[in-house]
């Protein structure tokens, strides 16, 4: 009958305080409804599913010295944690631009910030790569402050559908924008052993690059599929079977982390994008403008360090960070993903 009531469907039982499956973590994925559950996860030093905990917030705000009325850019919007703190510093005066390439997370973050009262009158969000900073400044004019957090967001890493982590089964994709370029699975189909070996060395300093690249290319030539995260993990595991048993599990874990990182950097052209951004950066900054860049990989940090030093010698920057700033011990203990972060800054002459 039309007026018959629909049968009530019971919500799934929450499996403990921290369920293993991403989709079962519905309390963490709805922080606005389950603040207590989210707080418990953070208290344990973990990052709730679907969220991201911003790193070096205090240090970044001290560097940028944001004042009401200024114009700035968050070059890597992500979950919007840094963005929110910068918007608070503007105190409804001035404007913040924000860019991100991720078409999945960007709308969520824009909506989240709008609900907090930060609409288009104070915040402009663009889906574009931060290497296109010159396109932003054609609209904004010279920028007083700029932040680029080069880390992959936790909500991207934790979502198995994105394929960023070997810890959960998912498609071997690794693209920040899944609608552009080729996936990591497709990249591996045509790569040579020498090229893969070089990629693992350059992008991740992988000590077992020769053994892993040989195993991957041999498997593909034999017709084996490597289209999921677990398939790649298994090949790495088999390739490192020669490691003494007492060290094997830990070494395999580290190699998996490095290999996934190397592939992610490659399919997203991360070094090329960063180089382009650094070259365009001075022209985007106002006189006395400040930039802070947070890196999570030695290759990224080297690019930033060399660029800042060269432009300082040329008189384009009047001051640069003498050394990289590291997160505090307290922050690293609270958030394990902060441990490899390095922060550098520069001020335009």
Distance between the termini: 76 Å
As a percent range, the share of helical residues equals 40-55%
Strand arrangement, major sheet: 3-2-1-4-5-7-6
Mean of pLDDT: 89
What composes the largest sheet? 7 strands, mixed
Strand percentage: 5-15%
Structure description:
α8 (193-204) packs across α11 (245-267). The protein has helices at residues 35-43, 57-64, 81-90, 106-115, 133-140, 154-158, 184-190, 193-204, 209-221, 229-239, 245-267, 270-284, 298-313, 329-334, and strands spanning 71-74, 95-100, 123-127, 143-149, 285-295, 317-320, 342-348. With 349 residues, the chain is an alpha/beta fold. It is 44% helix and 13% strand. The chain is globular. It starts with 34 loop residues before the first helix and ends with a strand. The protein has 14 helices and 7 strands. α3 (81-90) links the parallel β1 and β2. Strands 3-2-1-4-5-7-6 form a 7-stranded mixed sheet, with helices on both faces.
């Amino acid at each position: 009958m039309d007026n018959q009531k629909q049968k009530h469907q019971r919500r799934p039982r929450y499996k403990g305080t921290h369920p293993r499956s991403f989709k079962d973590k519905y309390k963490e994925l709805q922080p606005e409804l389950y603040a207590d559950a989210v707080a418990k996860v953070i208290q344990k030093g973990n990052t709730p599913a679907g969220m991201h905990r911003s790193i070096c917030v205090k240090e970044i705000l001290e560097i940028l010295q944001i004042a009401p009325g200024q114009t700035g850019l968050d070059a890597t919007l992500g979950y919007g944690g840094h963005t929110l703190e910068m918007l608070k510093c503007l105190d409804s005066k001035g404007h913040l631009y924000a860019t991100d390439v991720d078409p999945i997370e960007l709308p969520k973050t824009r909506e989240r910030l709008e609900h907090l009262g930060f609409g288009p009158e104070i915040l402009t969000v663009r889906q574009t790569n931060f290497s296109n900073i010159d396109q932003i400044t054609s609209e904004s004019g010279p920028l007083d402050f700029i932040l680029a957090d080069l880390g992959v967001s936790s909500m991207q890493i934790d979502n198995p559908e994105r394929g960023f982590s070997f810890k959960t089964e998912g498609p071997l994709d690794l693209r920040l924008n899944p609608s552009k370029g080729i996936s990591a699975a497709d990249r591996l189909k045509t790569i040579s052993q020498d090229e893969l070996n070089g990629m693992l060395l350059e992008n991740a300093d992988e000590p077992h690059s020769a053994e892993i690249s040989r195993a991957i290319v041999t498997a593909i030539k034999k017709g084996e599929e490597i289209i999921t995260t677990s398939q790649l993990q298994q090949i790495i595991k088999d390739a490192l079977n020669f490691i003494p048993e007492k060290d094997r599990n830990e070494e395999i874990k580290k190699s998996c982390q490095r290999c996934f990182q190397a592939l992610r950097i490659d399919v997203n052209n991360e070094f090329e994008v960063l180089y382009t951004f650094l070259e365009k950066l001075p022209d985007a900054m106002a006189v006395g403008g400040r930039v802070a860049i947070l890196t999570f990989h030695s290759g990224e940090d080297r690019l930033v360090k060399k660029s800042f030093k060269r432009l300082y010698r040329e008189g384009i920057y009047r001051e640069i960070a003498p050394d990289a700033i590291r997160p505090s011990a307290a922050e690293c203990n609270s958030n394990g993903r902060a441990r490899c972060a390095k922060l550098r800054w520069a001020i335009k002459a």
